[in-house]
Amino acid sequence: MSVEISEIFKAREVLKNVAVRTPIMGPTQLSDYCEVYLKAENLQNTGSFKLRGAYYKISQLSEEEKSKGVIACSAGNHAQGVALAATGNGIKSLICLPSTAPLSKIEATKKLGADICLAGSVYDDAYQKAVELKDKLGYTFVHPFDDPLLIAGQGTIGLEIIEQLPEANAVVVPVGGGGLISGIAIAIKTLRPDIKVYGVQAEGAPSMKISIDSGKRKTLDQVSTIADGIKVKQPGEHTFEICQKYVDEIVTVNDDEIAAAILMLMEKQKVVTEGAGASSLAAVIFHKLPVEGEKVVCIVSGGNIDVNILNRVITHGLVKSGRMVALTIDMPDRPGALADVSKAIADLGGNVISVIHERVSRSAHINSCLLHIEMETRNNEHISEIKEKLKEIGYKIVRSS
Predict the structure, then answer these.
(1) How many CB atoms lie within 10 A of CB 345?
(2) HSE (CB half, 13 Å, CA atoms) of 191?
(3) pLDDT tens across the length of the chain (401 residues)
(4) What pTM value is reported for the model?
(5) Annotated catalytic residue 342
(6) Active-site residue identified among 31, 207, 301, 321
(7) How many Cα atoms are found within 13 Å in the side-chain-facing hemisphere of 269?
(8) Is 50 known to be catalytic?
(9) Is the Cβ–Cβ distance between 328 and 371 less than 8 Å?
């Protein structure tokens, strides 16, 4: 079953009183080599684009299917979309999630009326459990990305982009299993084939990129990324074919780059996003795509980041962008040495936030000690300036992180 543009227009009618027509923010100051706009799906009901596809799929079920209930598997956002759609239509729902899903997403899904089943450590484990329970209990399975009706629902984002920013040159989309980019790509390439559609995957979960590059669907042995919303071992059958046909290029970003993008969105745009949602911006600000001088729409796909990992993500982002650094300095164990180091850093505008003075160390000379010093800095150039100054006044930097 293919996905026609008419199905996407039909989905828009069904969703017009359910899904938020999310704003496009911009032009922003997030890049100095292209105009970046943000399609803020983090402001969608349930905090993610997933509501669109889930609701449209469930709305098209027969009365018999609705009476038996629905089952789904998810890293978290699809779960909330299915739960809201099912509860709103008076349908019972059972959601299988990996045990590693953020607690905030698990609790939010429960509050929306769904029953929860935790299975395995990644999405694919939850998927296998959902298929098993579907056959056993007779539920209708609502796939998180590889379903034509669900893809049509996600495609309504593409329609909105064309209407809200018709002068756009490129759209950058986070990619896990491929449902979001498939719907957007069909809508945009059908109506505006001049607009480029780029996909972004996490470096630790590049299943779609590897599949496209090899010409056939591939299954990864393992996946690892802070972007749990796009941590998928294998793309879908439908989504793989659609991406082959419509998507211009797929690139990857690493976790440090994603963290830096999360931090930039918080600081510069006051936008809170999860790892998957920030991956599109990461690809732009770290020059992974040929978009110089273009008007680029980055899809901020969701904002459901677990507050328990937000501090770690911010720290990674600060380090990646040169806003924080930890130095280990080999220093003579004499009065005034610490004061010399502190003064050198202060004179250059660094702000020391922690110091550990290690007098006994296997790696230090008997008359030396190690100084572990963490400081706030302006950027990577500022860090280099401080390191050069410390070397100039006679101190050896053992480690920088």
Answers:
(1) 19
(2) 21
(3) 579 999 999 999 999 999 999 999 999 999 999 999 999 999 999 999 999 999 999 999 999 999 999 999 886 788 899 999 999 889 999 999 888 777 777 888 899 999 998 888 877 788 889 889 998 888 999 999 999 999 999 999 999 999 999 999 999 999 999 999 999 999 999 999 999 999 999 999 999 999 999 999 999 999 999 998 899 999 999 999 999 999 999 999 999 899 989 999 999 999 999 999 999 999 999 999 999 999 999 999 999 888 878 888 888 778 888 999 999 998 888 888 889 999 999 999 999 999 998 866 555 566 778 889 999 999 999 999 999 999 999 888 988 88
(4) 0.88
(5) no
(6) 301
(7) 25
(8) yes
(9) yes
Active-site choice (31, 39, 48, 50): 50
As given in the structure block, the two tokens for residue 399 are 């480690």
Q: What six digits make up the tokens of 232?
A: 């998928």
